[in-house]
Amino acid sequence: MSNRVEMPEKGKTYNVHHARKGKFQIKVTSIMGEWINGTITEGHAQLVAAESEDLTVGDEVTLRHSLVISYEEVPNASAD
Question: Domains in the chain, please, with CATH?
Fold first, then answer.
């Protein structure tokens, strides 16, 4: 599956729309190829397994870049 969404940058904060995890905000902590790691700063990420609790503010989340519908950088949020 080809994704034309531009890769985010480490250290910046983004509003994310993910195909499986929904919409939330993260601060990117690392990027390893296809995988984006970050800390949720607003909202919550839905998990696929029904018995799992959603991830919320302060939780670490890993995203597969090819499943991201959009990233929108949050101005001035990464200065924290």
Answer: 13-79 (2.30.30)
Q: For the chain, give the mean pLDDT.
A: 89
How many other C-beta atoms lie within 10 A of the C-beta of residue 29?
13
Sheet holding 68-73, edge to edge: 60-64, 35-43, 22-32, 13-18, 68-73
- The pLDDT tens digits of the residues spanning 27-59 come to 999 999 999 999 999 999 988 766 667 899 999
Could you identify the residue written with the tokens 């890993």? Answer: 62
CA nearest neighbour of 34 among 15, 16, 7: 7
Q: Provide the Cα torsion 7, 4, 40, 80; round to 10°.
A: 40
